[in-house]
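Weekly sync, protein design subgroup
Attendees: M.S., D.O., the rotation student, P.L. (late)

Item 1: inverse folding check
M.S. brought a backbone from last month's batch and wanted to see whether the design step gives back something sensible before we order anything. D.O. pointed out we never logged the input encoding, so this time it goes straight into the notes. Structure tokens as presented (385 positions):
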């Protein structure tokens, strides 16, 4: 079957790559389950292992496109079973009828009948197809969309340990070469945590950037109390300090600490929404897996860039295949200039490629993957067509 790809999945490719077509031949879908080194405690759930799907698409010339579909329990709407069902339906339609119904992203208001909910499945299938087009041209995904890419990207070192380990962990990460750290807060008493952040700042000195993430843990008063206690520690931003994000401008007015949206961006149904009224808004933490639609993700990147907001591309504990896609996007969107949130692979005991997605001196190489790079030995083949 053939797909014409000039305006692919609602995304414009770089001018030189428009009007390309695609002759798909086969699809395989694998399931993986990768244990975490330690149970991963997220806001609403604790996970022992990361589960997900790897989609391998092949065209008639033998090029391959890889995508990952890994719903994150507690964050994604879909279970793995639903994702598997939706993926096999979508891939069947593409292979058998040449019909690709991507998520219908539009930048204007849409009636309810026309609105589809973006899904982890859309992002995985869209990026598998885009990777195939890119691989056929020996390019990264990002280079095909934007016409340029860096070959490495800086990463924020992630601190998720308990308070007593923050300083040793910061010491370790700075020693490893990270120059931006992200610390998870909002877990125990806010004042004790604020003191811990001040200790990290004193320990690492003024040249390391500090980002915080509270995952909507606080009411306005607690958040402001925390904010006032850390403002002198020069915080780049704090992600989602408030249970109710509508109060964020009051948080900023009250303490002067810049904030970032993360969870809020997964729930926006009106793509025309303006962020101009949010003074103190410093960054969008963009998790394409959870936004679930490539076109909307790119639209959010553009909105951020237009409004001087940092687009921080971030992971949701994907395996190596998903991380490679995210690194390729980041290589073209923010390149060497902005630390991204891709320090999640070290939480897993194993992966889906022979060589894991590695970070050296705080930098992740931007790499493209082919079939030879895959290690699906521990995976189960669930679908083939
Ligand atoms: O709260 O930002 C979060 C990963 C999965 C789900 C939620 C979050 C995360 C991360 C990713 O922290 C890593 C990062 O942003 O640096
Ligand atoms: Mg966050």
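Designed sequence read out in the meeting:
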């Amino acid at each position: 079957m053939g797909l014409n790809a000039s305006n692919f999945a609602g995304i414009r490719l770089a001018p030189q790559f428009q009007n390309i077509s695609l002759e798909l031949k086969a699809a395989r879908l694998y399931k993986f389950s990768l244990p975490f080194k330690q149970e991963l405690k997220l806001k609403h759930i604790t996970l022992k292992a990361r589960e997900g799907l790897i989609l391998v698409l092949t065209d008639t010339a033998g090029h391959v496109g890889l995508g990952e579909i890994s719903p994150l329990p507690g964050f994604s709407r879909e279970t793995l079973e639903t994702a598997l069902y939706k993926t096999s339906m979508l891939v069947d339609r593409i292979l058998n009828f040449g019909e690709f119904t991507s998520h219908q992203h539009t930048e204007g208001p849409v009636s309810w009948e026309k609105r589809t909910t973006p899904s982890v499945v859309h992002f995985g299938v869209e990026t598998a197809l885009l990777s195939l087009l890119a691989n056929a041209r020996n390019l990264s995904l990002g280079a095909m969309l934007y016409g340029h890419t860096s070959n490495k990207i800086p990463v924020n070192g992630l601190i998720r340990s308990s308070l007593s380990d923050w300083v040793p962990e910061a010491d370790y990460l700075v020693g490893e070469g990270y120059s931006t750290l992200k610390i998870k807060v909002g877990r125990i008493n806010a004042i004790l945590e604020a003191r811990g952040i001040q200790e990290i700042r004193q320990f690492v000195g003024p040249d390391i950037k500090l980002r915080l993430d509270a995952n909507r843990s606080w009411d306005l008063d607690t958040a402001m109390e925390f904010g006032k206690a850390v403002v002198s520690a020069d915080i780049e931003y704090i992600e989602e300090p408030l249970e109710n994000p509508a109060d964020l401008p009051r948080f900023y007015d009250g303490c002067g600490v810049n904030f970032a949206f993360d969870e809020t961006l997964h729930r926006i149904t009106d793509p025309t929404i303006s962020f101009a009224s949010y003074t103190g808004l410093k960054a969008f933490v963009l998790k394409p897996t959870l936004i679930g639609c490539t076109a909307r993700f790119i639209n959010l990147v553009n909105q951020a860039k237009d409004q001087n907001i940092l687009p921080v591309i971030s992971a949701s504990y994907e395996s190596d295949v998903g991380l490679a896609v995210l690194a390729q996007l980041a290589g073209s969107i923010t390149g060497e200039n902005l630390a991204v949130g891709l320090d999640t692979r070290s939480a897993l005991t194993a992966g889906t490629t022979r060589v894991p997605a590695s970070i050296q001196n705080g930098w992740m190489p931007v790499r493209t993957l082919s079939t030879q790079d895959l290690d699906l030995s521990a995976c189960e083949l669930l679908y083939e067509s």
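Discussion: The chain has a mean pLDDT of 91. The first helix runs from residue 80 to 97.
Action: P.L. to compare against the previous round before Friday.
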